[in-house]
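Tip: read the tokens left to right.
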């Protein structure tokens, strides 16, 4: 049943509206003034409000302001027997859904209320679906370090200031960027992502700024770049430490001038873009090695945000693991599965070199492969610590140069990850945070093949 809250100090008007709406199968709640109305809204599920402007105490416009603060998505229809154009304009400016003069026309009243309730239903459904789709993008954490990150996000999100997010692979840098976008005034505009590490140097400028037809071999048509696509919204430059120096110079110019130029073009295009960058590299060291422009670094690093690795916030691991298990069960249409205290304790004790991404993959494997509804510690069954120590000792005992050791260690790590992911190349590349082509090249280099 759709509940409509009627706020009017005249009982006769409340009763007449009640009769009209109940005939149309609406449920009705009453409030004789603004104070009672706000109490009703806090205690009841309401789909729309009919709010009189002239009331004793706080008038309808003041009540409207408070409703907008507490329930910004709730449609409010203003009603008044003393309506003027100025009042209607002011009500609209404050976010009123509609404005109806007294005496009320029953047909117009029903249409306005029906449309308002439908809008509320659609918005509620949209938020529910968005939460279902973006559940994996929610930042979870109760540790002091994550509370500090979330505090910074809340402070900087409403501004247009640039943010540089640093942290290890899989630690959640992208989630921080998306949280900033969701809480910003640009949240209804595009959020465009560019993985700078995944794009060859010869194509990065075309990816960022677009190109004109015939700009280079293979440019058969005009292409719009990411800066243009993000106009009015947010551009997320992930792994910016891997961007070529030439592309860095053009990004710096775009940030300074607010204009870009397509490859092969001569027209300056104005863009309004908030840039958020992320890196897993030490950019200060890259600057010393002449691999990253210092002037671009200072442009991007207005607000630095460091996302701590999972091993430095172990108190968050149980919370994350439980949330991942619930999300994975829901997405796969499975009955809920509970993580035992033992498995949570063992998960918390692990090193998680792949950070949150590795934890989610592990929980996903446990949820899918465990037949019962409780996941026990025995289902985790990681290799004992002595086995890991022996493996390292074996690598050290082979001698050779430092490069030889690094190659052997890299080959052993890739082989372990391939086995852990059932030799699924796409999934392993995602866990390692590299391109599939890069993984294939590594496998070929080290002669890694699946043994049947």
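Filled-in amino acids:
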């Amino acid at each position: 049943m759709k509940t409509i809250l009627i706020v009017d100090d005249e009982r006769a008007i409340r009763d007449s509206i009640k009769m009209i709406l109940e005939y149309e199968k609406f449920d009705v709640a009453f409030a004789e003034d603004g104070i009672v109305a706000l109490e009703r809204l806090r205690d009841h599920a309401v789909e729309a409000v009919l709010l009189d402007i002239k009331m004793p105490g706080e008038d309808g416009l003041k009540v409207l302001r408070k409703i907008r603060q507490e329930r910004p998505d709730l449609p409010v229809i203003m009603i008044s027997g003393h309506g003027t154009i100025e009042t209607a304009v002011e009500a609209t400016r404050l976010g009123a859904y509609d404005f109806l003069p007294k005496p009320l026309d029953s047909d117009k009243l029903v249409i306005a209320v029906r449309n308002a309730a439908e809008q509320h239903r659609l918005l509620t459904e949209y938020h529910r679906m968005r939460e279902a789709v973006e559940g994996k993008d929610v930042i979870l954490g109760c540790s002091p370090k994550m509370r500090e990150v979330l505090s910074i996000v809340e402070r900087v999100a409403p501004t247009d200031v640039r943010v540089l997010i640093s942290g290890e692979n899989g630690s959640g840098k992208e989630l921080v960027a998306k949280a900033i976008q969701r809480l910003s005034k640009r949240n209804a505009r595009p959020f465009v992502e560019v993985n700078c590490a995944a794009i060859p140097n010869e194509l990065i400028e075309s990816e960022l700024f677009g190109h004109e037809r015939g700009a280079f071999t293979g440019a058969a048509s005009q292409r719009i770049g990411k800066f243009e696509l993000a106009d009015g919204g947010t551009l997320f430059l992930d792994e910016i430490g891997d961007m070529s120096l030439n592309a860095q110079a053009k990004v710096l110019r775009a940030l300074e001038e607010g204009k870009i130029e397509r490859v092969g073009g001569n027209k300056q295009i104005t863009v309004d873009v908030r840039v958020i960058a992320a890196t897993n590299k030490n950019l200060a060291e890259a600057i010393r090695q002449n691999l990253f422009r210092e002037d671009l670094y200072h442009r991007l690093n207005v607000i630095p945000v460091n996302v701590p690795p999972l091993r430095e916030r172990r108190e968050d691991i149980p919370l994350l693991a439980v949330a991942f298990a619930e999300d994975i069960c829901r997405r796969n249409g499975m009955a809920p599965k509970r993580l035992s205290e033992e498995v949570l304790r063992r998960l918390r004790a692990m090193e998680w070199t792949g950070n949150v991404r590795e934890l989610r993959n592990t929980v996903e494997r446990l949820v899918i492969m465990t037949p019962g509804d409780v996941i026990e510690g025995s289902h985790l069954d990681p290799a004992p610590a002595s086995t890991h120590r022996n493996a390292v000792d074996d690598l050290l005992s082979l001698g050779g140069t430092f490069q030889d050791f690094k190659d052997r260690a890299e080959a052993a790590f890739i082989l372990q990850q391939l086995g852990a992911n059932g030799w699924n190349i796409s999934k392993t590349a995602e866990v390692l945070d590299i391109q599939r082509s890069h993984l294939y090249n590594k496998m070929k280099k080290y002669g890694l093949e699946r043994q049947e």
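The first strand starts at residue 3 and ends at 7. The mean pLDDT is 85.
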